[in-house]
Design brief:
Blueprint: E1 18-21, H1 30-48, H2 55-62, E2 64-65, E3 70-71, H3 76-79, H4 82-92, H5 97-100, H6 104-125, H7 134-142, E4 146-150, H8 155-164, E5 173-175, H9 188-196, E6 204-208, H10 211-220, E7 224-228, E8 244-246, H11 252-260
Parallel strand pairs: 1-4, 1-6, 4-5, 6-7, 7-8
Antiparallel strand pairs: 2-3
Helix pairs in contact: 1-2, 1-6
C-alpha cells in the first residue's frame, strides 16, 4: 500500500491509542448515502426561485451531477458545510438570501428533505460501506486500539449505519452534530471523545476525507491525521497537507503498525 507523506515533522514517537473515524466518505459510501439528498435539495432550492434557475445550476455550484451521479471531491458538497453551500447559492441568486440565510422554516424544510431522502435511500439500498471496512476495524480492535466515530450527521443515524454494516461492536463512542459538542471542524467533539476514552488528543488518530475532518484534528491537537481519498493517488485540495493518504481503510492497520514499530 503506497503511503504519501507530506509532513516531515510528524510526531513519529507519539503512541496512538485510539482511532477516530469520520462516517460518510470513510466508513460509508458518500454517494450512495447522500447524493439523492443533495439532488433533492437542489430541486427544492430551484423551486424557491420560481423556476428561474434549474436544479442543474445549483448542482454545479456544489459539485454534484444528477446525470452522471457523481460528487466532485473538491466541490462544496463533499468538502464544505451547508452554510458554505447556501452562501454560494445566495452569491449566484441574491434573492435567495432571506430564505436560505434567515428563514428558520426554510432551513427546517431543507433539513427534513435531506433526512427523508436519506431514509428512503437506506430503505431502498441499505447502508453502503465504503469498501471492506469491517475487516480493518476488526483488526484494529483486536490490536487494542479504541475506536470512535466523529460525524456531522446525527448520532443516532451514525449508530444505525454502523449496526447495518456490522461494525458497531468495535466502536467505543459515537459523536454527532447533535451530541452536544458542536460540529466539525470545531474541536470539541474530538476532545470529548478523548476525555471519554481517557486519552489525550495527541494519542488519537483522526481518519477523514474532508477539510472538516482535517480542521477538527488540527484544532484539537490530534497526534495524527490520515486522509481517505476516493481519487487516490491524487487527493482533494483539503487533504493536501495530510501526513498520510490512503484510498480506503484496508491499509490502515498496517500503516499504524509500521508507525508504531
Amino acid at each position: 500500500m503506497k503511503v504519501l507523506s507530506a509532513n516531515t515533522h510528524e510526531k513519529d514517537k507519539q503512541v496512538i491509542k485510539a482511532v477516530i473515524f469520520d462516517k460518510d466518505g470513510v466508513l460509508l459510501d458518500l454517494e450512495a448515502t447522500w447524493l439523492n439528498s443533495a439532488i433533492a435539495m437542489t430541486h427544492f432550492v430551484s423551486e424557491l426561485t420560481d423556476g428561474r434557475h434549474k436544479p442543474k445550476a445549483f448542482q454545479a455550484i456544489i459539485g454534484i451531477d444528477e446525470e452522471t451521479r457523481q460528487i466532485d471531491a473538491n466541490g462544496l458538497f463533499a468538502a464544505g458545510s451547508s452554510a458554505d453551500q447556501f452562501r454560494e447559492f445566495v452569491r449566484f441568486e441574491p434573492a435567495l438570501e432571506p430564505l436560505l440565510l434567515h428563514d428558520a422554516e426554510i432551513r427546517r424544510q431543507i433539513r427534513a428533505i435531506f433526512l427523508e431522502t436519506r431514509n428512503a435511500t437506506f430503505e431502498a439500498v441499505g447502508s453502503v460501506p465504503n469498501g471492506d471496512v469491517k475487516t480493518p476495524l476488526k483488526s484494529l480492535h483486536k490490536a487494542g486500539y479504541q475506536l470512535a466515530i466523529l460525524t456531522n450527521d446525527s448520532e443516532n443515524s451514525a449508530r444505525q449505519s454502523c449496526d447495518d454494516i456490522g461494525i458497531l461492536p468495535y466502536i467505543n463512542m459515537i459523536v454527532g452534530f447533535d451530541s452536544g459538542f458542536g460540529s466539525k471542524p470545531g474541536p470539541k467533539g474530538l476532545i470529548a471523545i478523548c476525555e471519554k476514552l481517557n486519552i489525550t488528543p495527541n494519542e488519537a488518530a483522526m481518519v477523514g476525507d474532508t477539510y472538516a475532518d482535517f480542521g477538527a484534528a488540527k484544532a484539537a491537537g490530534a497526534g495524527l491525521f490520515i486522509g481517505i481519498s476516493n481519487i487516490y493517488p491524487d487527493c482533494p485540495d483539503a487533504l493536501k497537507g495530510a501526513a498520510h493518504l490512503l484510498p480506503d481503510l484496508s491499509g490502515l492497520p498496517s500503516l499504524l503498525a509500521k508507525r508504531a514499530a
